Amino acid sequence: MRSMGTDPIDIAKSLIPELRKRAESTDEQDAFVAENFALLKGAGLVEAGVPIELGGGGANVEQLAEMLRTLAHGCSSTALAFSMHTHQVAVPAWRWRHQQVAAVEPLLRRVASERIILLSSGGSDWIGGSGTAERVDGGYRIRARKVFTSASPAGDVLMSGALINEGDGTSSVIHFGVPMKAAEVSIEPTWRALGMRGTGSHDVVIDGLFVADAVIAFKRPAGRWHPVFQIIATVAFPLIYAVYLGVAERARDIAIEIASRKPQTAHTLDLAGRMVTSLKAAQLAHRFMVETALRGDASAETVNAVMMGRTLVADKAIETVELALELAGGTGFYRKAGLERCFRDVQGARFHPLQRGPQAAYAGAMAMGLPVDTVF
Q1: What is the pLDDT of residue 123?
Q2: Membrane-spanning regions, if any (predicted)?
């Protein structure tokens, strides 16, 4: 992190008190964490994952994951929303570093110099794709609704895609950046959710946006894994799930602090022991995800490894928070304690791909030596 002068993890630690000040109010009001994003931008974390050679901080997946895990100790919603920008930087940085893909340089340089915020429409644009792309002179006319677009109020460019009907019964997906200030792009405020209420994960509506052929990043068959998506799965999910690990750690800290005020019994020691054991399992599984991403390759095998880790982190993080709530007892049931917010926020770990069913099918097919190119 030479260009920033300070490690992103140290920066994240320094921001925790400020993030905690607003966490409760933004949650209760379903308000986007706009002030926190301004804080992250001012602290230099927006460009942390851009290679040093391109003007950024040069942080790798391990450092970025630790940064996000740390931010989650301050505000879960801020960390999760920021993980979507962070992985949209980390993926092209990985391609630049490991595959020498020069086409990603302009985007990465913009992130470093202008500190633009990248949005992910991953929830809408997983392997199957969504939206429509109509062929017109010089490009395509895009119409789509992209749900779960975290940090949409702060975004500058939405990294997205749309489906093309090839006319022979098949579909393809084109991928491109969507300027959020375009007249054809609007945000529909739909985000009223169980947890992660401050992420601003509203619907982005694209109504007739023209996308020129020259700015299409790549084209792929719809409904089938593509090498770029193997990179996305390998690199992005250790970052996203670092947030849920941080939520579980925060719940542990709160529960221990509450329980320490009371007389200890065999029951509380049992709960505390089960809680920290579950947390250790989540930490080990997440470490496995990070180590897989650090290998520098992306394939069906790395997707399988990362997604097995994703399920283990989700299960054990959720279990940790449940045990933390039980250990804290009735005191933890009060909203002011912060544990019930951790309980709600960690539930989001259930919903990112690959969810439990597809992940098990993918792992099972790999174990049996069967194709996985349409398992998602």
Answers
A1: 76
A2: 228-247
